[in-house]
Design goal:
The chain is mainly alpha-helical. The protein has two domains: about 90 residues, no CATH class; about 50 residues, no CATH class. The protein contains four helices and two strands.
Length: about 150
């Protein structure tokens, strides 16, 4: 992938922004349950669709013609909302002490741990650091064999 660095920067920026917004809004995105989350996604998609309609839904052409960053902002917002929904779905379906991971180069890194372990300081049920230097506690880490 030629633009791997850009993709990584977008993903890391999304995580930082989601964590900052969660501190500010405290999970208000799911306040109205699953139907509310669905319509939150729908409204964002409707905005993207409306901006692309006049150009035959050629999203790249719309981006070239735009003077503001409205469309790219909406695409980013939708991507982050989808990340929130996926996270919630995974947490709700995770068995006790199952870890959520991001695989990169054959290694799994801890992203969240939905149920805190007894006596484990690291396991808070919240997002933990997501950088290249973080190593989860040994009892949560598992090597991935490709």
């Amino acid at each position: 992938m030629a633009n791997k660095a850009i993709l990584k920067a977008i993903a890391k920026g999304d995580v930082r922004q989601l964590m900052a917004k969660d501190r500010e809004y405290k999970g208000s995105w799911k306040k109205r349950g699953g139907a509310g989350a669905f319509f939150m996604l729908s409204r964002k998609w409707d905005r993207i669709e409306a901006q692309c309609e006049d150009e035959g839904y050629d999203i790249f052409k719309v981006l070239e013609d735009m003077r503001s960053d409205g469309l790219i902002d909406d695409v980013g917002d939708l991507r982050r909302y989808l990340m929130l929904v996926e996270m919630e779905m995974r947490i709700r379906h995770a068995s006790e002490h199952q870890i959520m991971t991001i695989s990169e180069k054959g290694t799994e890194h801890l992203v969240s741990h939905p149920t805190p372990c007894k006596g484990c300081v690291e396991c808070t049920g919240e997002f933990v650091r997501m950088d290249d230097t973080y190593t989860p506690p040994a009892h949560l880490y598992k090597a991935r064999v490709d």
